[in-house]
Amino acid sequence: MDYNRLAELLFPNITELPEDIEAKYPPRQLPEGAKVTRFAPSPTGFVHFGGLFPSTVGERLAHQSGGVFYLRIEDTDAKREVEGAAEGLIKTLAKYGINFDEGAILDENGNICDQGAYGPYKQSLRGHIYQVYAKQLVREGKAYPCFTTEEELDELQAINKKEEIKNTDWLAQAEAKRAEMLARRNFTIEEVEEHLASGHPFVLRIFANGDPERKLKFTDLVKGTLEIPENDEDFVLLKSDGIPTYHFAHAIDDHLMGTTHVIRGEEWLPSLAKHIQLFSYLGFRLPKYMHIAQIMRIDENGNKKKLSKRDMGANMDDYTSMGYCPEAVCEYVMTLLNSNYEEWHMKNSDKPYTEFPFNIKKMSISGCLFDFAKLNDVSKNVISRMSADKVYDLSSEWAREFDQELYEQMSANPDYTKAIFAIGRGGKKPRKDLAVWTDVRPYMDFFYDNLFKIKDQYPERFDKKDIKTTLCEFVKTFDISDDTNTWFEKIKDIADMLGFASDMRAYRENPEAYRGNVSDISMFIRIAITGKENSPDMYSVMQIMGYDRVVSRINNMINLL
Ligand code: GLU
What we know:
4-stranded mixed beta sheet; elongated; 47% helix; 24 helices
């Protein structure tokens, strides 16, 4: 076969050679050990929580090593393309600390543009480049055309699928497939000419020389050493519209763009033999690979399942409406990604996660478990360490979009709201009431007269008369300028007066001797003021609410009783 002639027939308009392209993509000048990583999504208008994993790892490894992290838009599947999806994706990722040095970025008008010398970074704009390498592979007898239309292929696949279900004789099936492939390889230049003259489209296939009986030894930086069978499948490099498949684009783009570490989901692991073969055919140096385990969840029956698109927590846009702050989500992702993150964090709680020395060796091989309870735990810690001002800023920004009524109350008097957020904040053991901004309303709505409701009733076991007396006595002596001790002494006095123990130790030793204790008395006051049995420290609450509001709440309750 005259492969040069074949190449000319298939790609008459391609005049450049791979070396011409290579000259435009010189090796990057980076310090020793600097990693070049990329995130290479196919934007569908949906950023999956799982996407935060390879992108966070890529971002950390590049930026930790003085390297480059870039974004490549893999939009070769026109059927899946969604208008504006790439723009949305960039914005969403930026929220979670995934910022790119290079690649597809947003300009000041919010439109996608290229930044960097290794573009274009959108695969749909790289058609010519793929063709140059495709032509070279044909010249070298490593790829060949296959004049089967896409419809025919679909049909064939459908038949094969049906056959597969019926046919349990796998050996016969494999043989049939092999025969089909060999028949495809068997063509003459004249046949190709005829097809082209009749305008038939073709796909370009690799001439696979692998023997699956032979195993490749391969080290994945996450999965460890693997043995994978060589590839013997003539997989498609260019589809009939000239657009590359993922495999072909991956090899060419990651080579030209100088990627040192390919970080991607483990669903690509079965294709690895194809990629190794392709890199070798093209004469490219193989990058390092890191295949990241999928995110799992526990379903209703206690079984591990993949976190799929429809599951709660899968769509990154939901995190905003659920009221998670990105900082917390990032930290949670770190706890899932690196098994020693939490230990480091305990010792360095004042440092941002970006200072954590991310370690590939501490990554989970088998899959991380997504768990809202754990995320909430992490989030409570993150928010508890924020200043009251910051909590105010973030939560009111959220409320402005998602809880207008709360926003109006919060922002009507920012100092008042900030004082509420300051309760129990700043010390060694800060309060951990808030995991998500949706927690703000139930936690502190009672501070605002317009939102205040009595949520808890007085427990039946108490005599209404005692409650009423407590409230009346409290109002009588209440002085907003009392310090916390004086204030509490007054509450104890009421306890003594009503035969409730003011000394908790005495009460515990002999509960029968009392009608209750001082914490019950506090609760009588607490429900009147906050409407709830549980609330932050009552002294602080009253100090913030001020004299008038406290007294009016108590009086209202007295009238209700
Ligand atoms: N476009 C591929 C995907 O979204 C990228 C995989 C890779 O990172 O190479 O799965």
